[in-house]
Amino acid sequence: MTEVVRHARDLAPAAAVVMTMGALHDGHAALIRAARAHAGTGRVTVSVFVNPLQFGAGEDLDRYPRTLDADIELAAAAGADTVFAPGVEEVYPGGQPQVRISAGPMGERFEGASRPGHFDGMLTVVAKLLHLTLGARRGPHEPPGAAFFGEKDAQQLALVRRMVLDLNFPAEIVGVPTVREADGLARSSRNRYLDDAARTSALVLSRALTAGRDALAAGPDAVLAAAREVLAEAAGARPPVLPDYLALVDPADFSEAGPDHTGPAVLAVAAKVGTIRLIDNIPLDFGAPE
User: How far apart are CA 83 and CA 74, in angstroms?
Assistant: First the structure.
């Protein structure tokens, strides 16, 4: 039976954790199942916390869906032992934290440029939750626990990995492939805001990424050109699709990949579909020159 914990003092140490802001869907279920498989008989904890530090002025903090009962049901069905659902006062007992994690230059690109301060807030709460869930009363000689993150939020995943590396967190960070609808739309809690017309318009994002992937053999410039061409076709969609960025980046630090790039890369896109901002990406590998 899955237990619901409201206070950090009541948490038992976990072998694996999945951090969410709730409104769980099949993508989150995939993360929880991966955590369950990794943990074996160890404890799997799912956190449900809408983190106010991640929301900027004019963003949808108050509107963000809160569906805790359904979230608990989904988490239990996917194999979670514990749902940690703290209030804001539990996570930030002194009010707005005076000391925070800085994402640095890596967090100022792309999503960070569009949402200033977002990644500082994300890393701050991830750091706290790593301590509270994986570090809770863990013995000094026990192996580190693992935290599972979706590859759909590729820049977030890259930053969490960098934080763990740079600050010597005793945690393993595991990426789980993006879960998509049958028509290619990436699963997202914000998809519920899309009406039928907006959902149709939104499909251009995954089509652009697929077009870029199909041009992989021709090199980085061809990948970007193919993806841009598909995005341009959506200029007259109703509701309109307004691209924020389309970029080919090195997943290690989210710097832009040049025309001679070899090895792993991420083709990432963000756009507003009507009033709803969506992100998506696809991993690529250009290989080494023969």
Answer: 10
How far apart are the C-alpha atoms of 51 and 59, rounded to whole Å?
12
Same fold, 3-176 and 189-282: no
Please list the ranges in the chain whose pLDDT falls under 70. 136-140, 288-290
User: Residue 70's pLDDT is what?
Assistant: 97
Kindly list the domain boundaries of the chain, sorted by start residue: 3-176, 189-282
pLDDT of residue 201: 96
Instruction: Fold for 3-176, please state it.
Output: Rossmann fold (3.40.50)
Collect contacts of 190-193 with beta carbons under 8 A, ≥24 apart. Answer: 190/276, 190/277, 190/278, 191/25, 191/278, 192/23, 192/65, 193/276
- The residue assigned the tokens 């041009």 is 215
Distances (CA, A) of 230 to 183, 193, 203, 207: 16, 24, 11, 7
SS3 letters for 88-147? HHHHCCCCCCCCCCCCCHHHCCCHHHHCCCHHHHHHHHHHHHHHHHHCCCCCCCCCCEEE
Q: Which CATH class is domain 189-282?
A: alpha beta
Catalytic annotation, residues: 28
